[in-house]
Known about the structure:
The protein is α/β, with parallel strands linked by helices.
Amino acid sequence: MAPSRIDSFERATTPVSAAPVVNPLYNLYLLESFPQEAILHSQTRFKTILHDDPEAKNWRENADAILVREKTISARDIKAAEKLRVIGKQGTGIDIIDQDACAKRSIPILNTPGVNAQSVAELVLSLTMAVARQLRSISVKQAAGLEVRKEHCCGMTLAGKTIGIVGMGNIGTAVARIFRGAFGASVYACDPFAPDDAWRDIPHTRVQNWEEFLPEVDILTLHVPLNSSTKGMVGLSQLKKMRAGAILINVARGGIVNEEDLLEALKDECIFGAGLDCHEEEPPTLKRYKDLWETGRVVSTPHIGATTAETQVLTSVGAINNVFNFLSSLKTAR
């Protein structure tokens, strides 16, 4: 994924002590802030240029490799970067990088799928519980000085509920395990690309079309990339098929859920609520999402699925290792 910048990692932009360079043939430009552990790791493998180094602005002219998290890399950038051999991407999503331009120049984009699965799955659990127990609405009212009496609150118990998981990759798998273990949930799953024997150790019902299980599930969680086939895949038609007490969770990408339709569905009480870590506008703002938030049944976070301290280190170091392994495999040095 491509999480928003987290202030707790700004410390990674400060200079760190020099480390021995194992592969001085190549340089790596870190175009954003990364954990200090990742910087030190990079300095043992490359000549490393930090994003706040004055030299960083010259990456298009000089970079053999770059590492990004959320920075957009356009076709124009790729065309200008004549020496660029590889792009490291912290996290899973690569939609911020012009893939066609990279393909034309045979520049691989090396991401770190699966590394963030547990932290994202834990956020699915957090959002589901927050929506089910109306935590946002209660907290906002209390912070505004209003009295909230327990007899006026009525949440939802999750034990024994049914969850529908769209996407059976690493994150979807982790979600299934968590909900099975924590709540004894019944699981529906859909993924046209997963092998037939996927999830052999997870009791579940697999369907070919995810819309088949909409009337059956209490929780719908999305774990698919954003592309032409998934953009707006959850709209009013799909939301109306769901149970009135159902919860929608999107920790995948903004744009997969039609936000105007979601607002209408919430107003019409087609579903109970929604937990959104991904929005069409990121980070989400009050100007854009005021109406959605004022329903009191939406919990929004600014794409924080992978932003735990542990995951940030693992994904950035993993991306650096991917870049190092690729460059080390090249037969012809610069």
